[in-house]
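Researcher: Structure prediction, please.
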Amino acid sequence: MNKKKIIKDTVKKHIPQRHLSSVRIMYRIFMETIYGIKRTGLINIAIIAAMAAILTIFGALFRTSFSLSTFVEKLGDAFEISVYLKDNTDPVYITARVKEIEHVKKVTIITKEQAWEEMNKDIDVSGMENPLPDTLHVTVDDPKNISLVCDNVKKLSGIENMSYAQEIARKLQTVTTVFNTVTILVLIVVAMLTIIIINCTIQLVIQSRKDEIEIMRLMGVSNWYIKIPLILQGAAYGFLGAIISLLPLNTVQNGLLKLHNFLNVPPSDMAMNTVVFCIFIMAIFFSASGSMLSIKKHLQV
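Model: Predicted structure follows.
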């Protein structure tokens, strides 16, 4: 025992007193946070489960929106505008003019001879005169810019006709817009539900510790010493809910990866990491915010 006391005293001498005091305060705040969680009892399970559920819904939508954006981006590369040229029109000259148009990513020339040769591979049309025109395949940088590029290409002389998957491009863009809007709305709902749940929980904790908190105030205890454990308790609920939400979210991730492999579209490398990071930041921030609102409303310190 004497040896232990000597070691303890020696260690204390080498630690500045203000540091020891800070460590003691941090330890007490941590213990008060744990005590507050224990005091809440079985309600903790319901709170964390509710947090995990709403975070899972948001995470699944957010992760799916990443994949949907990737699909639209990759499929958008396949949306080409077919530009059919009039007879005696120089395709090289028209190609140069088309490349000058904003949002044009690539232009490929398909001469009438090349098109006729490809057709001969599938259908025997020997003996017939080649009726096909020279064609330009124009790829745009984004599906939503197809209509704009088409309008500009039409203004060029030597253009006979044009065609592209207008309806498909429009529907894909609409789906992406709707999905992103829904994700934002869910984010707002997640924030509101999280703040309400934590607000109610901290209110119960404050009511159960009302006498104890009053005594601490009369003893001159710092207001922040009373507030911080309650804020940390709310943040802890968000953190634990985020951890549990990763389990079903991992199932969503695996399903999306299989879909990516099936469609032969590589997934975004940072998609899952970004979603997980956002879930934890949101859960902790909104939960701590809910605690602070409850403290401000129900605890006059």
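Model: The first helix runs from residue 2 to 13.
Researcher: Thanks, that helps.
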